[in-house]
Amino acid sequence: KQWYQRRVRGVKEFEEAxxxxxxxxxxxxxxxxxLLLDKKKNQENLGRADKTIDLLNGDKERLTNxxxxxxxxxEKRMAVLDEELDGEQTKVLRRTxxxxxxxxxx
Length: 106
Known about the structure:
Blueprint lengths: L1 H104 L1
């Protein structure tokens, strides 16, 4: 009878330990599932970040090209204006000289 009671007690202890291990395993599996989902979300976010970086780099290149184009146009216009200014200054000098010459004659 004692042997039987010890055996029953041993089986109960084994079942309790087994239940505890099943619970711990279940908790660990839930944690693993959560971590895998987090990993997947992080990878998706990283993919989106990479796409955003690519888009920003494309924008940077496009804007750099636009700035270069605008700069070239500005330099061309400034060169034309410089030529026009030189021409006007030359006209003013000629007229000034003509006026001075006319004053001497008078």
